[in-house]
Amino acid sequence: MLHDVLTADRDQPWPCGGGVMGALLRGGDWSTSRLGPVDAWPQSLRTAVDLILGSPNPMCVLWGNDLVQIYNDGFAAMAGTKHPDILGCPAHECWPDLFALIVPIYEAVRQGEARSRKSQALVVERQGGPEEAWFDLTYSPLRNEAGVVAGILVTAFETTAEQQAIRARKGAEDQLETVRGSYRLAIRAGHLGTFVWHVPTDRFVANATFCELFNLDPEQMERGVPLSVVTAAIHPADWSSVNAAIQEAMRTGDDYEVEYRVFGRGGEQRWVLVRGACELDANGRPRRFPGAVADITDRKRAEADLRARVVAEKTRHIDAERRHLRRLFAQAPGFIAILDGPQHVIELVNDAYYQAVGRRDIIGKPVREALPEIEGQGYLELLDRVYASGEPFVGHGIRVLLQRQPGGPPAEVYQDIVYQPIVGPDGRVSGIFVQGHDVTARKAAESSQHLLMREVDHRAKNALAVVQAVVRLTRADTVDGFIEAVERRVSALARTHQLLARHRWTGLALREVIREELAPYLGAEAGGRLRMAGPELTVAADAVQAVGMVLHELATNASKYGALSHPQGRVEVSWSRSGDGAARIDWREIDGPPVTPPRRTGFGSRLITATAAGQLGGSATFAWEPAGLRFTVVVAADRLAHGEAASGPRPATAAPAPATGLDGSQVLVVEDDAVLAMVTQDALEALGCKVVGPATTVDEALRLVAAEPDLDFAILDVNVQGRQSFPIADILSRRRVPFLFATGYGKDIATGQAVPVLEKPFTPRQLEQAARALLLKS
């Protein structure tokens, strides 16, 4: 499990994604740059880099006193041929021609103020050649973890289309001015229609140009016609405004000027500009109304064309902005939805939201109907509350069950969510804006990190407990002998731990364990004094320490009394697999001193026997032959691979113990480490207890519980060869048998029960106190 967590962390290079620039940042060597190696970058800088790499707009981060540049793909395109040479370089080296102009902006931003620069013209490389483009630039302060401005965020918004539209409009206006000049020349040249209306007699006369524009008979016009004949040619839609202007001029005598449409020859519609003035008599009554008319059809067409082009350009710009906003909406890293009305009808969602809900057909449906699985999880009530109160809701790491696959079961997901009310012009809430992120992976990483910390703590405490037990159980005739024995055994434990760490706790080849454990005793003559034979065999990680301890005890004995104590002595180690998958390891000593059976069973023999029966799930056999010790240990198949098998209890003999108040108590001991089991058993037997076990597997412990109806209390390890001992605890609870957990996981072990915990490593005195407290409480 530790290997999986470490591998998962290693396999996630930073930054994630980011296109071409993301790949350059991941693959570049930043150790010699002004920013230093990527792993040493502050989180504020890494967050800013993640922000720009995920943006479709050109963006750049200027960091540190030198304003070192890091930018995204959009900015790289804007930089043209300067890219990639300017990546990681100070700004004054990258833009020497602009730097003097921008220095005041940089200084202001470093003081915490935002600045902008409108319509900055730059030459960029596009479609294989240089091209002039315009940008609006914003400069924003970036603060570090201490809140100090440590960098500048530069964002570019391209305005090339707007600048081109301004130029096009200017060209059209120039064209219009040319047309207007032509009309002024025409007027001066006499290409005008002229007229006089004699108001009292309603006699209207005009020249030929006027008659042509209004489709009137020139001969009839020379004699004069009523005004109504002339106004009949005016477009009906324009007549009311023309008549109002005429009446106003007749009332006030002011100048008259109006533009309107008329139907000329063949019914052709043309625009005319009419100017005149009504002359009043001494009594203020209209007397004479002269004027002139000009054909402005071409000008009107030019104006209409200009308006159409302006409208088309605005429409194109609006459409481009709309498409851009939709792309941003669709590509937003978090999920987004817009809900309408009190029923929370789903109006619009982005792709991340579709993915989060299994790409179901949800548009136009109320949330309750579109996502029925969230009923009863509190989310509908939250939406109702936000809609009714107008107050936003912000949640972090919230658990929700969502159907992630069409037709699939709901999956557990963790999300950061914001429900923001949408307020209309009337001040009322009309909908809810939903935005959030899936943080399931983050929660899993946090959980894995917590589990990793607990596992490291557990392993450290277990290691200390084993060392403590080795010290307590080791016997020697002298202090130096005691120190040597303890150092050798602790070194053996350290060697196996180093091997396991080197192989990431995935198990070790038996050949490598043998070579490592015997190396201290063989020196430079290892090739001639050790012979190994057997097939490829891998010992499971949980059993490596036990195998190493057995080999260490054998090698120590051989170096003191056996073959390795003699210059010509040799050791042969062979192994094989039996039909049931178990491994048989044979140890044979050759050419050593004559061997006699020991008069008593020492700590090493006890440790080997207990380890073989407990942690290795097999057995150990000693043959003290005169020619040399022959030893066989059987290792269960499940110690060569992940799994668990039951093993029988280790026979134990208890020495007479003084009266302690615990005399005669039957105690179940469950412990998978042979050394810890031995020290626990010895301590309890010294208190006068009768030990049942020690059991080294959960299954063995369950059998012992079933076979022993008169248990007084129990001491349980929590993690027993990869399985938890909680099923044993449940049975003991139902039988009202008091028990405690002896574990390296600490007092906060999640058992769901109020159970005493004895933390490893512990002393015999602490064990006695815990046992007395347990019996007193019961």
Topology:
Elements: H1 2-10, H2 19-27, H3 43-53, E1 59-63, E2 68-71, H4 73-79, H5 91-94, H6 96-110, E3 115-126, E4 129-143, E5 149-158, H7 160-188, E6 193-198, E7 203-206, H8 208-214, H9 218-223, H10 227-231, H11 236-252, E8 255-263, E9 269-277, E10 279-280, E11 286-295, H12 297-331, E12 335-340, E13 345-349, H13 351-356, H14 367-370, H15 379-389, E14 393-403, E15 410-423, E16 429-438, H16 440-473, H17 479-502, E17 508-509, H18 510-522, H19 526-529, E18 530-533, E19 538-539, H20 541-560, E20 570-577, E21 583-590, H21 603-613, E22 619-625, E23 628-635, E24 666-670, H22 674-686, E25 690-695, H23 698-707, E26 713-716, E27 719-720, E28 723-724, H24 726-734, E29 739-743, E30 757-759, H25 764-777
Parallel strand pairs: 18-20, 24-25, 24-26, 26-29, 29-30
Antiparallel strand pairs: 1-2, 1-5, 3-4, 4-5, 6-7, 6-11, 8-9, 9-11, 10-11, 12-13, 12-16, 14-15, 15-16, 17-19, 20-21, 21-23, 22-23, 27-28
Helix pairs in contact: 7-12, 16-22, 17-20, 18-20, 20-21, 21-22, 23-24
